[in-house]
Each structure stands twice: as structure tokens, then as C-alpha cells.
């Protein structure tokens, strides 16, 4: 890999860094290559390493700093940083951008559908509870004592079912979110360590 | 190399070189590499970090039809270097005392 190939590949590897960081790094390496005195067709990776290795070091340095400076802040912010790192890591994998984008869209779609499912389940629970309340209330105007008892009992059972549905939905979602956060954290940590 | 350089010590080395005289990427790297086995890809992020934290500042100077980016130390950087020097001497003396080298007392 000669000088210009190296710089081109490095630029590609650093595509997702802020523009200013990327330009500064490219300036440094452009200048370094000139000053070192590589000839036009000489292989530069023997001395400098591959562009991928160079980029990995740079991204590791930047992301490590993020984690350090967030250590004392709220864990929510830390998690957000780690999620961001995870996204950067996905993009820095040697897969093409379209695939990375597809992955991101799939994850986003999954997230949105889970959210909608949550709202509908909660809504369904509320509707069932309302229906139970109506049955219970109809017990007041039911003619015989037998009918009254059936309405009160049935109404309470239906309300309980609605309540359970709501509770279960919230519980399952809390667990799901915790699991997701843990998985993201773990994979991000692994990524940082590897880098 | 038997002993490893920690991040603050590497920062101190870079600041020390630049405090002596402004330097551009290649000479700076050469000077560090004379003493420490370290790659460009490790050194560059250090420079960038010191620059972003305003311990170093850069300026471009034309050279043979292109630019060279010089690093120079800021006042804040000099303060940090002073601190690192003090810490290093203190640490070095303590280690010397333990391993029985030249003791400064």
C-alpha cells in the first residue's frame, strides 16, 4: 500500500469521526509520510501499520476518553455514550455502509414495534378493566339477588384480569429494557477492550 | 523495552519535548521513538488529546510547497508539565530507594 492509497483508506476508516478530528489526523499523516521520505510506490504499512489499525487506535483513544470523563456522571448519560460507541463500532466494522444502515433500521423498527405493542397491551388492559367496571355497575340494577351476585363477582374477576394484563405488560417491558441495556453495555465494553 | 510507559508519563514526555522547542509531527515522533518503543498510531492520538485539552496549540508553516503543522506548548501545558516533573522526580526517587539505585538524598 503506497502513500496515497494509505491516506485514502485511512480517510475512509475515519469517516464517522467528527470532521475536525478526521482532517487533523489526515493532515498529520500526510505530513508524516512526506517527512519520512517514503518514495511514491513504497509500502508504508510496514512502518505505520494498516489504516484499519491506525483508525482503531484513534477511535479507542477518543471513546476511552468519553468513558473516563463520564465516570462520575449519571449512569443514564454513560449508557447513552456507550450506545453511541456501540453504533460507531458497528459502523467501523468491515461491512459496507448499506448493511450497517439496514441493521440500524431493523433495530429501530423493532424498537418502535415493541413500543406500539406496549401501548396496545396497556390499552387493552384498561379497556378490559372498564368493561369489568361496567359489569360490576350493572349488578346495581340487576333484578334478583342471584343476578346481582353474578354481576358483582363477574365484574370483579374481569377487573382483576385487566389489572393483571397491565401489570404483566409493564413488568415484562422493564425486564426487556434491562436486558437490552445489559447486552449493549457488554458488547460495547468488549469492543472498547478489544480496541 | 522492559518498562512500560503509562499515559501520563507519555504526556509528560511529549510536553517536555515541545517545551524545549516547537516541533512538527515527524521530529516529535522521532524524538520519542529514540527512547520509547511506540508507534505513530499511539502517539498521534496523544498529540490530538493534548491539543484538544489546550495543553498544546498548533500553527502551520510552509515548507517546500506544503505545510508543516508545528506543535507548541501553552501556558496551561507548561503548568501541567511542571506538575508532571515534580511528580516524576518524587516517584523516581521512591522507586530508586526501593530498588537501590542512585539515591538523591
Integer tally of domains of chain B: 1
CATH topology of chain B: Arc Repressor Mutant, subunit A
Largest sheet report of chain A: none
Outline type of chain B: globular
Structure classification of chain A? mainly alpha
Per DSSP, the total helix count of chain B is 4
- Rg result of chain A: 29 Å
Low-pLDDT residue spans of chain A = none
Uncertain residue ranges of chain B: none
Q: If classified by CATH, what would the architecture of chain B be?
A: Orthogonal Bundle
Put simply, the count of helices of chain A is 7
CATH class of chain B reads: Mainly Alpha
Write a brief structural summary:
The complex is a heterodimer of chains A (195) and B (105). Chain A is mostly helical and 195 residues long.
Notable features of this structure?
heterodimer, A: 195 residues, mainly alpha, 0% strand, B: 105 residues, 3 strands, globular
What does this structure look like?
The complex is a heterodimer of chains A (195) and B (105). With 195 residues, chain A is mainly alpha-helical. Chain A has a domain at 109-195. In chain A, 85% of the residues lie in helices and 0% in strands. Chain A has seven helices and no strands. In chain A, α1 (3-13) packs antiparallel against α2 and α6 (97-141) runs antiparallel to α7 (145-194). Chain B has 105 residues and is α+β, with helices and mostly antiparallel strands. Chain B has a single domain (7-98), classed as Winged helix-like DNA-binding domain superfamily/Winged helix DNA-binding domain (Arc Repressor Mutant, subunit A), CATH 1.10.10. Chain B has helices at residues 7-20, 25-35, 40-52, 75-99; strands at 23-24, 56-63, 66-73. Chain B is globular. Classes of the chains: A mainly alpha (195), B alpha+beta (105). The interface between A and B is medium-sized, with 20 and 20 residues.
Amino acid at each position: 500500500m503506497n502513500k496515497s492509497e494509505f491516506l485514502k483508506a485511512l480517510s475512509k476508516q475515519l469517516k464517522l469521526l467528527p470532521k475536525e478530528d478526521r482532517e487533523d489526523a489526515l493532515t498529520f499523516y500526510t505530513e508524516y509520510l512526506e517527512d519520512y521520505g517514503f518514495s511514491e510506490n513504497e509500502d508504508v504499512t510496514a512502518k505505520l501499520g494498516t489504516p484499519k489499525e491506525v483508525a482503531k487506535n484513534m477511535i479507542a483513544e477518543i471513546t476511552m476518553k468519553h468513558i473516563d470523563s463520564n465516570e462520575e456522571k449519571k449512569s443514564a448519560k454513560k449508557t447513552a455514550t456507550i450506545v453511541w460507541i456501540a453504533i460507531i463500532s458497528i459502523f467501523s466494522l468491515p461491512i459496507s455502509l448499506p448493511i450497517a444502515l439496514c441493521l440500524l433500521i431493523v433495530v429501530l423498527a423493532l424498537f418502535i414495534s415493541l413500543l406500539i405493542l406496549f401501548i396496545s397491551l396497556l390499552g387493552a388492559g384498561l379497556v378490559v378493566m372498564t368493561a369489568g367496571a361496567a359489569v360490576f355497575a350493572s349488578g346495581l340494577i340487576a333484578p334478583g339477588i342471584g343476578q346481582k351476585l353474578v354481576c358483582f363477582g363477574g365484574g370483579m374477576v374481569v377487573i382483576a384480569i385487566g389489572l393483571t394484563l397491565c401489570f404483566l405488560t409493564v413488568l415484562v417491558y422493564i425486564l426487556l429494557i434491562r436486558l437490552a441495556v445489559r447486552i449493549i453495555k457488554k458488547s460495547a465494553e468488549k469492543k472498547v477492550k478489544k480496541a | 523495552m522492559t518498562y512500560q510507559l503509562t499515559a501520563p508519563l507519555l504526556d509528560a514526555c511529549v510536553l517536555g519535548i515541545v517545551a524545549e522547542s516547537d516541533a512538527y509531527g515527524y521530529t516529535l515522533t522521532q524524538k520519542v521513538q529514540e527512547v520509547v518503543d511506540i508507534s505513530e498510531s499511539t502517539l498521534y492520538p496523544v498529540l490530538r488529546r493534548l491539543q484538544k485539552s489546550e495543553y498544546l496549540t498548533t500553527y502551520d508553516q510552509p515548507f517546500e510547497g506544503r505545510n508543516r503543522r508545528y506543535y507548541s506548548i501553552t501556558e496551561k501545558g507548561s503548568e501541567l508539565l511542571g506538575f508532571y516533573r515534580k511528580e516524576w522526580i518524587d516517584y523516581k526517587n521512591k522507586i530508586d530507594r526501593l530498588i537501590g539505585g542512585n539515591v538523591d538524598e
